Amino acid sequence: MIKLYDFDKLSPREIFARADDSADVAGAVRDIIDAVRQEGDAALFRFAKQFDRADLSALEVTAEELDAAVAGLEPGLAGLLQEAAGRIAAFHRRQLTNSFVVSEEEGVVLGQKVLPIEKVGLYVPGGTAAYPSSVLMNCIPAKIAGCREIVMVSPPTGGDISPVILAAARIAGVDRVFRTGGAQAVAALAYGTETVPRVDKIVGPGNAWVAEAKRQVFGRVAIDMIAGPSEILVVADGASDARQVAADLLSQAEHDTRAAAVLVTDSEELARAVQAELERQIPLLPRADIARASIDDNGKIILTRDLRAAIEVANEIAPEHLELCVDDPFAYLDAVRNAGSVFLGRNCPEALGDYFAGPNHTLPTMGTARFMSPLSVDDFVKRTQFTYYTAAALEKVQAKVARFARQEGLEAHARSVLSRFDNTL
Q: Distances from the Cα of 263 to the Cαs of 210, 331, 341, in angstroms?
């Protein structure tokens, strides 16, 4: 059963406690990355057989296979994916930023160019479940940013990538798709193989092996974030429906045994009712064993004196998903400082954001919402600055620049400026 805490008696350690049964995979991941670097495609074929039970004849998915995946979707699903893609695109187009040029001093031009990252790699999980929503959320911002090539990798669990994942890739506009997953897929994207192209940035969630591989290749390539298990924190008042609150908590608990579902409320009556509802609803789920472990090991209900205190608890935890199940959620929105994505009101379950609303569902976890942001178009662009001075403009500041350089003990810096006006240097 989910644990119930009184916030005034709760230690910081208990607030952030989370069961973690993940093994130390750093060494094993390092060996996999080294194997891919040295053996290329041969290592990918071997690991597909070892980890995914897939005896592959080809790594790359053909255009014909992608088209067939779309054609084979159950009635109405292609249209649903396309409608969701349109909503996601409409939201992310508003994130585009422009280059700029500034010329406020005579003879001086300053500016910034915003350029797309040329090649990006999307990691799409495919183990315990297939998530076409992840394809849309990762690919569409990259397309809007203008990336020249978008490459997707996904594990061929049991023999091949899920057809719905392939269909989503075609609908979203992925350029190339490869049957490889886990740490080996990350290594292939970072270093390239005979078949898989090297990319400039890798984005997308994955298990502990994928997260560790992204950590190890960072610097060789850029990454979006190190994603941890999913999280939801619901702030709810006493007027909330316990059945709905419990359902929302379970929407994340069913992801992973290490997922964290937290309710923060000022109503003990609601807290007790949600406890009971969780016990009623868990057995009804197809993934009941996963949800049960998540709720028992990582679930919490925290009682606070009022809703403002509840918001402060949320800010301390900095959850991936934050629901404000109150009558006037906008009255509390300004008080929210740390959250990946906020869902406002009683009619906005987190699942809406996972699939259909438009904002991205790739979000910071494990408290990193204190300094990280959701995946966005900004993740797929880079910025280049430029500077122009005429001779007259440089002459006005030459002495100041030289003095600054000499203050730092860098004489050659000073002389590089002064040499343009003093032929004796």
A: 29, 19, 16
Q: Are 222 and 204 in contact (CB under 8 A)?
A: no
Binding residues for Zn(2+): 252, 255, 354, 413
**Residues in binding site for NAD(+):** 123, 184, 207
- Short-list 408, 360, 290, 394, CA closest to 140: 360
Q: Would you give the DSSP letter of residue 221?
A: B
Long-range CB pairs of 61-65, under 8 A, 24+ apart, other chains included: 61/161, 61/166, 61/176, 61/177, 61/178, 61/179, 65/166
Q: What is the pLDDT of residues 64-80, one digit of tens each?
A: 999 999 999 999 999 99
Neighbouring C-beta atoms of residue 63, cutoff 10 Å: 11
pTM above 0.90, yes or no: yes
Q: In the structure encoding, which two tokens stand for residue 50, read together? A: 């070892």
Q: What is the pLDDT of residues 114-139, one digit of tens each?
A: 999 999 999 999 866 789 999 999 99
Mind telling me the catalytic residues? 320-321
